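Data's thin. Show one?
=====
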Amino acid sequence: MVHLNIDLIAKSRNHFKKKRGLSFPEYLKTLTHLHFSGKNIEDIGDLSMCRNLTVLYLYDNQITHICNLGFASNLTHLYMQNNNITHIDSLSNLQMLSKLYLGGNRITVVEGLEQLSELQELHLENQKLAPGEKLLFDPRTLLSLAESLCVLNINNNNIDDIRDLAVLKELQHLYASDNKLHNMEELEDVFSLWPQLLQMDLSGNPVCKKPKYRDHLITACKSLAVLDGREIKELTRQFLINWKASKEAKKKKNKTHMLSVPLTNDFNMGQGPHPGHIYSHPSMQRWKPQQPLRVQKLKIPMIGPLNHVAFSSAICSHVDA
């Protein structure tokens, strides 16, 4: 088992020349970058003497847990992609961290980032998920990143719903290709809440096959400059925005027209005033609601199916008289 510790740093050829002229403890205090990618490291040991560490490269190893990094309060970049990490933890002291790379691990829930108020980039692509699993997000973590996160990479994580991400209002770059996003209205609603969004990649999702997919998203994201690797021309955007506005105006006009058409009753049509309506036809001027009609009992023999017609005619004749 390979441990990342002070001894491993001392044996590293990459740091041998740099420590000449300084004692090893003094050299460790000046160290800002550590490069230990692809070294079959399984565990992070005590590195507390590297108090000025700002960038740590640990990608392509066998690390299962993020640990022993609490000392690195100056760390700004952490590269731990392509390991075997299952949980995001032990990062609460890294309050200067701005870029976190955790793609290609075994993470199922994005959590434990509540204290990282300076985090601008979060890369979580290609998690090694069990069949049927999808990457989930802790709402507390998302809320804590709402004012800082600018770049989010969630490619290929079986994600079918991004409504929880709506709080990330400072997002500028979203990479969410090869997922299972399918609901166009949901995407339009979420993207309309991201006024800073400049670049987005949704290629490989079912929603890409929907009619006018590209047109809908361009009109929903007013600031979007690149969609699925293709640049959006300003002339195209203005045409689509005007087209959408015209369509909505026409729809509103038709709705208003429908509401203004009075409802009618087939039985009363042409036979007398309908309650709630005012008639201006000359033949109707004689009818006054304050003068009740006299109703007479009509004795009509019940002789068959035509009785209803006869009865109606009798009443109509009486009203018109």
In short: Residues 3 and 43 are 5 Å apart (CA to CA). The longest strand covers residues 41-44. Residues 234-260 form the longest helix (27 residues).
